[in-house]
Fold:
Amino acid sequence: MKKILFFLLLALPGFSQNFKLPRYEKLVLPNGLTLMLMEQHEVPVLAVSVGLPAGAVYDGAQYGLANLTAESLKFGTKSFPKALLDEKLDFLGAQLSTYATLETALLTSSFAVKDQETVWPMIKEVLVNPAFDASEFEKRKSRLLVELKQAKQRPSAVLGEYFNHFYYGNQPYGSPADGTPESIGGITLDQVKNFYRTHYQPNGTVVSVVGDFNTAAMKAKLTTLFKDWKKGTAATQPPALKAVPSQSRVLLVNKENATETQIMIGQKGVPMNNPDYVGIEVVNTVLGARFTSWLVDELRVNHGYTYGVRSSFDMKKAGGTFVIRTFTLTKTTIPAIDLALEVIGRLYTKGIDEKLLASAKNYVKGQFPPRFETPAQLASLLTTMFTYGLNDSYINDFQAKVDALNVDSVKRIIQTYFPKDHFQLVLIGKTAEYREAAKKYGEVSEKQIETPGY
Amino acid sequence: MLKRFCMWGLAFWLSVPAFAQLKPEDVQSFTLKNGMKIFVLEDHSIPNANMYLFWNVGSRNEKQGITGLSHFFEHMMFNGAKKYGPKQFDQVMEFNGGQNNAYTSQDMTVYTDFFPATALESIFDLEADRIRDLALDPKMIESERGVVHSEYTTGLENSPEEELDQAMLSVAFSQHPYMWSVIGYESDILNWKREDLVNYFKTYYAPNNAITFIIGDVKLADVKRLAEQYFEPIPVLAPAPPVVHNKEPEQKGERRVMVNRDVPSPYVQIAYHTPEARHPDYYALDLLSAILSRGQSSRLYKALVDTQIASEAYTSFAPSIDPYLFSFTAQASDGKTADTLEAALLAEVDKVVKTGVTEAELEKVKNQKVMDFYRSIQTNNGKANTLGRYERYFGDYRKFFTASEDYRKVTVADIQRVAKTYFKKSNRTVGVLQKETE
Structure:
């Protein structure tokens, strides 16, 4: 103990990781399209991230519609039938993908600077003139059905979908972004085209570019490229979040041949623009977001219950969740959950002292710069900042906000944002083995994993 | 700031040794008196650095009874040594703003530390302590056994492919230790003893059995001083680690394996024995793998996925120390049988053997290699891992800088020749994973 204290004291002085957002330019074209341009000259590559307000929150009852629409952009365009598009992109070693998350539809791409005269027109066509080829659409639907059926053979892959649906119910954040076999089967190409017309507009959309370019030249190029993309009628409004559960509940999803249980424990979280997000991140680091976190220490190191456990805040525009995820053998399911709940309680019973806070602060500062090392990471950051209305202080004040935390402010953050009861639990596994015991966590409902949907 | 790469045209890039500005000599190296070789690449783009230690030991060095021990040992390296007891490795590292990880493969065990450059000395101190004086506390062994058992269980529970992979290895290899997967047999995980770990540590964790790459906001002189202070006093353990003498004999006839599992549609895997990374055919096989399955314009995608025989199809080929496998894997679309899938895969194999590939296909995958290189050197992690793997697999990190030339030399005739040489019926193993059908 003496040795480690001595070491810790030595480590404190001179610790500095003040990472600032590199210079970038933001402009809005007459059609409402926002461009964010950041030069980074390490390698002769461009990274592009396009964000559109066209995520799964707009699916309604047609789960998977937003994602299928985003994927359909790549099924060919007016000038590039799918096979030609794939062939040309692959030939250049370029990457281009389109998909939707809950809140945003995204196009991401990376390619060599020398190929930009070829790739930019393809990106533009994909966004502005998709052909919605019927046969490609049917083929994708058919593959998606197999993928979605397969997903239920991988409980870790569907745990989040079960939890979100259990927590948010039929509200927009409860939509499974990839859909379900039942919902995908019913989606028609006309519905996709209609979704595209409603949600894919230049106004509300951001094109972020990071890489080896000259800003003035890139500005001119993209202004010309996107000038004929017609402005839409209205910006899409994000759906509001209504009530969320206030009583403890348990969902047991039975998978008869399971040898382990996939576990998710959660409660109300915070929206993306929460002013205390830095403090929340630091506290969560102590609880469950690094290797020496309390959860890893107890569930993995001290007890050997699991290979992995972590806690996180899933922040969205209008709200969010706090969740713990882990897995363990069927026979250690209940002890592992008990321990996890006890560990969350320690935030209140034990709290975070000076020494532990110093460690967590050093850790989050030390690991901050590598999060924004590549053009793709930076392009994604710019798109996220635009999507959630975050300004430069989100990055530039990070270190100062970490430094400003003290034991008292951390105590306030725990009491304001970290749950201590009314947990929502989702367990996927051989539920007969712990059905009775699970009742102590709250009102139990049950499903078979084969039952359609989540 | 990191030196910038030129914006050359592709043809030019392929015609000269790569990366005229990041030169092989930018990677500096020195060897300690105990035989540990240290490589340093200064890169000041962010105030962080990485230390990657590549140990020349993996599941290839195991035997039955202690399968999976290399991977288990990797876990135990975080569980306490003499100066820093249980949990302190991570506690001290994280207090200093660093984090770490590790991975084990058939051929090597790699420890990775990611930290603010100010923590460099602490990292040396921590690594030296566990390399010299690992404790192997019996209580920690038992707790970690549960962790690795959970890793084993969750891997199988959530991945039908992993179950098929394990069965394939056990059939494709009859004598070489590549026959078990890196995580090992469940019965060995549950039964290996502390003395197995102690012997293993004495045998393989000698400084001359490791190479270290340090990349980032550091100075060579500082690295050298710290390496001499912390790593050099660690003694070399004699004798040298035993050489793996097992050679997989030539396969004489097709082998088949069936695994039953409740999956919505069947999986098929076909694997051929192929040579190690240092064999001259490596580059042609690697490019062939990309021609077959990289991207939606690839052969397997167009022939199997686009035609709705398979929902996915891919090949797998990677560098290895000893001869390993080139494999094809696909999952059937709804309603398609394993036989249909196998026939479709074999038709693609035959096509390459009989008619080869086109110049355009070859040029395409060479272009993809160029972009891969750019992507692999965008981060400190990418540089450390890529250079270290080249040093281990190809015997010299400089092979990374000449790889463009090695790929450029491959011709369409080479591709067809390697396909003919290795894609023979007698050299293949076929595996099917599906619901029980009778």
